[in-house]
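thoughts on my protein:
***
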Amino acid sequence: MSCNPGTPCYSTKVGYPKGCNTNYPCGVKKITTDDIVYSGANLPCSGINTCDTLTVVIQKIDTFLCESYICEVVAQCSTTTTTTTTILPFTCNPCVTYLLINTTSVPQLYSWTDCYGVVYSDFQILGDQAIQICVCEGSLSYNPEDILAYPIGAGCHPVQDTTTTTSTSTSTTTTTTTFFPIQFCVWSTDFVETSEYNVTTNTLYNVPIDNDLVGVVGMTSTYTKLWKYDPITRTIREWFINSNPDSLAFNRNITHQDQYPNWITNSVIAAVDNNTILTTLNPTSLIYPLGVPGTVLLWKYDISTNSASYGTALFGITATYNATSMMFTTDSKLIVIASRLINSVPTFYLTQYSYPDGLVEVDISLASILFNPSAISLGIYVITHNNEIYLIRTYDSSLFKIDTTYPYAITEVTANLGFQQERIFESSTGECNNVSFTSQFPQCGTTIPKVGETFTYFGVTGTVTTLSGGIAIYGFLSPGYFTQCSALWQPPFYWIANGPPATIVLTFNSPINNVGIVLSILNLGDVFTITTNTEVPTLTANISCYSHVSGNQIITDPSLPGLGGDGQFTITTITPYTVLTIVATNGGNGGPIGLSCDPNAPPTTTTTTSTTTLAPTGFNTIYTHFEAL
């Protein structure tokens, strides 16, 4: 009788094989374990096959029990040295791969039986983390209020068996389960393929994606999920990020209400977390049906359900029409790249906003990153890599590194990445985006109100007695921000000096004789003449950027395209004054004016006049900021 692999080895009359073995290892003529064979089907878990002798069967059972003990009790499947990798078979029916997401910030417990039948009790998943496990269906136990569990595929493909053979005659086998929801922090798409991007090697890895959202869309991700956004169909599509092998598994579609014709929606998006997506909207008007230039709002959509409704407006961003790239960091900063018209020239700026209040902390001109005039598309994308911030220019896909501290130097790293122009890049929200910019000066200051209203400036009460000439009054408070050249802080403002010569008169209830003033001047030809009600003051330039002092005037100098001058100046008089007058002759668009503390102000001047009130040392500064919008 012969035995075919995978088929039972028996006949109708033979109970066990005869004459199969004439060796008697025990020295006694008896039936041995070598004389009995296994007659059932192949067993994939233990590796026992049809026609294996009982000796081989016992050896395989012993090996399987030892391996299970080492994996579960001793090593807990946590350490190994990998030399070869094969997919583990499963024995339960069905065996399912699950994605577990801890929605809390603290560790949570879960239990399950794996596809070998091994029971795991009270294992921890760390706060705000996600893992994949192979589960014998029906055995997974967890608290659904704290953990989300998604079946993402049949079988046990994410779990891998790693075998290591030592130099001795003994072989040991342990099992490692390692999960990487993403392998790289940067994703990219050319609107046809979706790829992970390795910044170090400049390599794109195409990732299979289920039910892709085609066309020109925005893209963002977290550690466990990826979204694409089509503003035309108002669809935000969501995928789970899987690994080993890498893939994007479709989860759901989220839609929001139509905002048109009152708003134009931008495709660029950024994820705050797994339930919040940010984008920008531009209001329309009869004159500007495609969006009012310079009026752009950051918009938030709650995607905890499949209907995001109308969303919520958060704050204004400085842009002509929309953002081209956004990145959310672990310290709640929103970094936005957008284009502005500076002297009728489109110029990209990088701006860092605190979230969700919208205070501008850093505002950096990217005018030094030049584009070829024949480029089909223009765009700059912000990404992170190894705790540093990089910029990718779409034209010839050049890579730049930008310093996170003032003066925010930009250095070209790779002149040509070799990618086509129609490609976008984004960094995953979470532990990847763990770096942001440091502002040069603190955010402190006093808003100058409208005419007739009062304000308090370090114990001195001031009144805006005159706003005349080229003054544009807003009906709302615009957020503060840092100046572009010297990075001095501009407090929020209600109005700007714009157009014809503007006169601003501030009256104080107590005399003051030493004040610091900060101007941000974007246009050549701007001249600021400072006078008081006692004498012509002396002006000193403490920090000067494309501007200088001449007598009691501050005058702009030629600057780089898109980057104007600004600076800190000290106004000093021998006789204290109660009236400070600023006459702004605007060569360009002008901008807002504000009062603020000055970290580098000179000491206050002492006086014997009993009625004189001096600003505190280190805080005796009036910031005056002229910024073209």
In short: The first strand starts at residue 84 and ends at 87. The CA atoms of residues 92 and 264 lie 53 Å apart. The chain has one helix and 41 strands.
